[in-house]
Amino acid sequence: MPSLGVLALVVALGGCGLVRLGDIEPPGDRRVITEIEIRDNSGVADGDIVAELSSRVQGLSVPAEEALVDVSEIGIDARRIEAIYAARGYFRARVVDYWIENRPRQTARVVFKVVEGPPTRVDAVHFLGLDAPPGADDETVARLAALRESLPEEVPLAKGDVWSEDDYRAGRARVELALRNRGFVHAQVEGDNYVSRERSLVGVYYRVDPGPLTRIRELCVVGSENFPKERILRRVELAPGDIVEPSRLRDTEAAIYDLGVYFSVNLRVVRSDVASCDARTTGPKAPTVGVIAPATPTPPAGGPPTPPDDNATARDDNATAAAPELAVLAPRRRLPDHVLIEIAVQEMPPWDFTVGVGALTDSIKAEFSLPTTFQDRDLFDSLVGVRLKVDPAMVIPSITGSWSDMQFGVEASALLEWPSFLEEFIRLGLEIKYERDPSQDAETDQWSGSIGLTRRLLPGLAGRVGFNVSRFRIFDITRPDEQEALDVAALRFRSADTLTWFDLGLILDKRDGLYDARRGFYASIQAQLSLPALLSNVEYLRLLGDVRAYIYIARWLTVALRSRVGWLFFPTEQGTPTPARFTSGGPSTNRGFATGRMGDYLCSDGTLNGSCGSDPTDRTYFGGNFLVESNAELRFYLLDWLGLVGFVDASHLWSHASDIDLLDPYIAVGPGLRIFTPVGPIRLDFGFLVRGPVGFDWYGHFSLGQAF
Predict the structure, then answer these.
(1) Contact 67, 92 (CB under 8 A)
(2) Which positions ≥6 away from 607 have C-beta within 8 Å?
(3) Are strands 557-569 and 666-675 parallel, antiparallel or unpaired?
(4) Which CATH number fits domain 121-212+295-328: 1.10.443.10, 3.30.300.180, 3.30.479.30, 3.10.20.310?
(5) I need a surface site. Which of 38, 115, 140, 708 has the fewest CB within 10 A?
(6) Rounded to whole angstroms, how far apart are CA atoms 593 and 616?
(7) H helices of 16-137, where?
(8) How far apart are CA 289 and CA 519, in angstroms?
(9) Mind spelling out the 3-state secondary structure of 76-88?
């Protein structure tokens, strides 16, 4: 395998045309393009120009037969470069010369020499057609007035900006979206650009036909067979006569989806003049309703002359002797001011029985499981759901050691959920759970039970209150000295702990997807209060905050960010029990560590935070009392089923508040692979620990679902 230095040299020589990647020789006297150079350009980058040319540069993704020199095509590319410049506001740009330089091994460099000229800047952005028509109701007048004030902020062009066709088109789409979001569902926007080449200025005109302010005529449910339509309509906070606003439609989708019996929920506006849900499929069309014709506006005084109708091409005032007349939008057919809202659902089966296979690894341990689940979603014909799950697993504590040391673990649970307990949006949850985990040196088991009530407070905002009981035990471990555990790790070590606690939480979820969010944000705060008065062995208050943001950059790129902060309050002389402490490290936290292997640990000889053996099973981790985590990911969506991720993880755990140092994080970086499936992405991450307790280290993580 060549070294990185040799590989870099090959790439550099390839850029000079001395080494050509690939083994396809050009036929006859043809030559292969290995470089395209743009000379004297500054306003538009080389890469932006070359990416849009027909001539291509041979490389890893372009085979030689697709990069052959074609003199006629290069001539066309010269004209294409001028069009590329024009689309970016350089209307005077010209290609003044171009040539082909022959190079060794039948390769060639193509050179284009350009004169850019000055960029054309925006003189003003005008919005025409936003005046309320005669006879409009007060709500229409108020909404159009508000849009006149807000639309300039929606358009990515302002006075003094360099004009570009992409920004102009994006502005037109955003103006139309803003109108529809405000209840004008039939809105259409066209535009013109009028260019003064002599002054290098352009006047941008968006001509708006808002159509009527649209209200709901009727709500139709489609696709409901096993579950009654009435259960859907009870969750719909829309009524005939309400103004159609997409944000309210999306909130209603989330409320219906929360019932837990639908694969998908989609509210659609039926933009036709159908009079009722029955007539949509069985009856004749009803008469059309309502017409609001936009008034013919007058361009503002002092701006560039008003252009004629031309959606895609900038017009030149040097080509006309006088200012052209304003071209009004062509009249449309009569538009309904009341529409149907179709609620289309795809139901889950009333019950199902599934058996799956699971596998995960983090370079230290491996786990193979056989999850088996029975689920009834309509118990007692009341949409009360029950789920029974058994998940036996074979665990190899050290994949680098002897696999004969494998052990068996199990997780079993019974969950009952009532999504409309007492009233429509109160969810009751009852759960009993048992887990036996042999994944580290110590083997643990835990019985737990919980009862909780969750209530939607606002669209996207939910509150929870619950009560929990847990019995935790740890086996086959050399106990540390109790006072030493308290002093070193603020740890209240017991072979068994009985904990009870109240939990309170608030969750704000504005993501556009649960399994793979591309836009939106998420925030939660959770509190656990454990007291002896609740029959708990210990007392503590545990707080955990979690904030996430998903920034959509392009169809192929999303930036995902997360930060978590945890804090335990407890009597100093008591310490904290193992199950209440925070843990970090693993595929969803800091990928420079194996799962849960950050913070305080106990060696197999009973020493705390000492020098243990080299085998991963020689130490058992107990986490910490104070947690700070931050994660950032660049998520690249290459194909419908394939993606890549670049990530940075930073975190730290402390046991004593006096040890907290926010300038001393453990940092991991690395790449990841994503294979998208209907149940979430399968992911493989490689975390390289560039700053940690032992210097450089790395771990591989194979699991299901995005990290956050």
Answers:
(1) no
(2) 480
(3) unpaired
(4) 3.10.20.310
(5) 115
(6) 12
(7) 46-50, 71-87
(8) 37
(9) HHHHHHHHHHHHC
Q: How far is CA 554 from CA 379, 519, 632, 634, in A?
A: 44, 11, 17, 12
Is residue 489 within 8 Å of residue 600, measured between CB atoms?
A: yes
Question: Among 594, 525, 520, 595, which residue's Cα sits nearest to residue 561?
Answer: 520
Rounded CA separation 692/598 (Å): 10
Whole-number Å distance between alpha carbons of 17 and 123 = 46
Distance CA 83, CA 535 (A): 77
The answer, yes or no, to whether residue 12 has pLDDT greater than 70, is no
Q: Which CATH architecture has domain 215-290+341-345?
A: Roll (3.10)
How high is the pLDDT of residue 325? 46
pLDDT in tens, 646-681: 999 999 999 999 999 999 899 999 999 999 988 789
616-626 pLDDT, tens digit per residue, is 778 889 999 99
Integer CA distances (angstroms), 526 to 466, 529, 604, in order: 11, 10, 34
Mind giving me the DSSP string for 473-523? Answer: EEES-PPPPHHHHHHHH-B---SEEEEEEEEEEEEEE--S-SSS--SEEEE
pLDDT given at position 283? 42
Q: What is the pTM assigned to this prediction?
A: 0.75
Two tokens, residue 305: 């002359």
Question: Which CA distances in Å does 514 have to 278, 300, 474, 509?
Answer: 34, 47, 34, 9
CATH code assigned to 4-115: 3.10.20.310
Whether 681 and 340 have beta carbons less than 8 Å apart is answered as no
- Calculate the alpha carbon distances from 204 to 86, 191, 208, 498 in Å: 15, 7, 13, 70
Tens-digit pLDDT profile for residues 273-308: 777 777 665 444 433 222 222 333 333 333 443 333
256: which 2 tokens?
Answer: 């219906």
According to CATH, the topology of domain 349-704 is: Porin (2.40.160)
Confidence bin at 3 (pLDDT 50/70/90): very low
Residue 171: is its pLDDT beyond 70? yes
Residues 525 and 59: their CA atoms lie apart, in Å, by: 50
